[in-house]
Amino acid sequence: MKLAILSESPADEAALRVLTEFVVGAPVERLATNLRARGWPSVEQILPFVLRHLHFNTEADFLVVVVDSDDTPVHTAEHDAPGYFHPQCRICRLRAVYRRTMRHLPPAQGRRRVLRAIGLAVPAIEAWYLCGRDTSVTEAAWIAGQTNGRPPYTRRELKWKVYGTDRPSLTFEIRRAVEEVARHHGDVRRLENDFPHGFGALARDLRVTPDARM
Amino acid sequence: MIAAIHFRNFKALRSAEVRLGAFNLLVGPSGSGKTSLIQAILQLRSLAEFIDVPPTGPLAETGSGPQIVFRFPPPFAEVQISLGCGADELVCNRLTVHAPESLARDAWMALRPQLAGARAYLLDHYAMGRPSPRSAVPELSSNAGNLAAVLAGWQRNAPEAFRSVVKEFCRWNSEFSDLAIEEGADDTVGLLARIRGEESSGVTAANLSQGTLYSLAILTLAAMPDPPSILCLEEADRGHHPRQLREVRDALYRLSHPREAGLVRDPVQVVATTHSPYLLDLFKDHPEEVILTQKQGAAAQFQSLVDVPGVQGQLGEAPLGDLWFSGLLGGVPEE
């Protein structure tokens, strides 16, 4: 499988490289290794250009995109209903950009289109790093906090839990990101259980078989 | 550390106050007071170097002339130091300590070395590119023109700091595998960066790119074995690719938050200026470290980013640099 990753930082990218291999259960070949976004909404703005580039100029099978939810709604099963679109949900928005961009592109590079694998880290990717280590950090806890107006933790607290500081150096951040996701040893069931909508959506996208593409 | 500075009739700072923390990023248009703030700190440093027993007394406004008042965190929260001058004088060189009588002398004795330890840098790649005379003083000059001499001194006397700079330099600039010190004529030294895979030759400092030299200077500042108490850096983003600014920020954080970087030493108070929205983006999680400087007519003001109404709600919706550029936060040129 050949894939490109569009993320906000080299640390996110290092973690996603490991996680995508865990999900597909095989080594992946990374293409277009210099893609980077400046955070939301920059990801949404540059996504059409990235998709067109990958579609016409590379042999990429997938584009992996993961964004932080911050305080926006979590993508839930209701959002996957046919025709449903939540205007604040970042997965819904990125999928809509994907649909609009790819709709009229002709086949290229021997395949119909680049597939998308979109994840939503709730509220930030450090939550995924804590999976299995801190049982209080889950999508369910975050959604409950959004409902009752009392977030169970902040982005800053998640950073402290992962890095021991909220000012980690980039090299330390990369090291910790890879250490934490490597704990799953190829088995992402716990991540899919604790983060069914943000990580689960990414995993389900990545498991689309090549046959389903044409 | 300086907790706050109040300015009255000092250049464009007619009546302005700024609170300072361990790390302070000043953003704003030209002429809005960023450099004036640094000049005030340098003036305080100069006077602290020379004045053994300053006058003391209650704080009072000094007519229409400029006045700069510095406040400090505990245990010196009751102490203020003012710089002032008459309306017909050009330089604020009248230093007065304002504190309860019993405190003033001890407070000055304790604060003086910290204030005298302030340094400011405006890096100059032309100066850095030239060989520099060997120097017994291991301190980086304000334009980093003696960078080669400083690193040559560290190679002999502070090898751990030297190795750390070389290692980080090669990580930031992956085309290089090593950094060597070259002996020059007339007891000068120069820098030679070894190209990975072509170690027999090298690139002299004069031929290194502007950004490469700036990255080396920033790393040298961050690795100083005996850093200043206050470090001011003009245009911290200068010459750096936007993606490398995270490394620049990390290097400066090593000075201001050494414990969080695993270092055992006192923190350095950092005051940096920038015009880069990309550098500003990196402070989304620490808006308290950003100070907006604004001009209204001929007068300039400071405002902490956390004091901008509604800013927390906006931060999740757009990069901080874009919000600043848009004018929503202030700190942009008047049109």
Tell me the strand order in the biggest sheet of chain A: 2-1-3-4
Mean pLDDT of chain B: 93
Count the DSSP helices of chain A.
9
How does the major sheet of chain B shape up?
6 strands, mixed
Shape of chain B: globular
Overall geometry of chain A: globular
List the helices and strands and how they pair.
The complex is a heterodimer of chains A (214) and B (335).
Chain A: E1 2-6, H1 10-24, E2 29-30, H2 42-57, E3 62-68, H3 90-102, E4 115-121, H4 125-129, H5 139-148, H6 155-163, H7 170-182, H8 189-194, H9 198-206
Helix pairs in contact in A: 1-7, 2-3
Chain B: E1 4-10, E2 13-19, E3 23-27, H1 34-50, E4 67-71, E5 80-84, E6 94-98, H2 101-116, E7 118-121, H3 125-129, E8 132-133, H4 147-157, H5 159-172, E9 176-183, E10 188-195, E11 198-204, H6 210-222, E12 230-233, H7 245-256, E13 269-274, H8 277-281, E14 290-296, E15 299-304, H9 311-315, H10 320-326
Parallel strand pairs in B: 3-13, 3-14, 7-12, 12-13
Antiparallel strand pairs in B: 1-2, 1-4, 4-5, 5-6, 8-10, 9-10, 10-11, 14-15
Structural commentary:
Chain A has 214 residues and is α/β, with parallel strands linked by helices. Chain A is built from nine helices and four strands; from the N terminus they run βαβαβαβαααααα. Chain A has helices at residues 10-24, 42-57, 90-102, 125-129, 139-148, 155-163, 170-182, 189-194, 198-206; strands at residues 2-6, 29-30, 62-68, 115-121. A four-stranded parallel beta sheet of chain A has the order 2-1-3-4, with helices on both faces. Chain B has 335 residues and is of the alpha/beta class. The mean pLDDT of chain B is 93. The interface between A and B is medium-sized, with 21 and 20 residues.
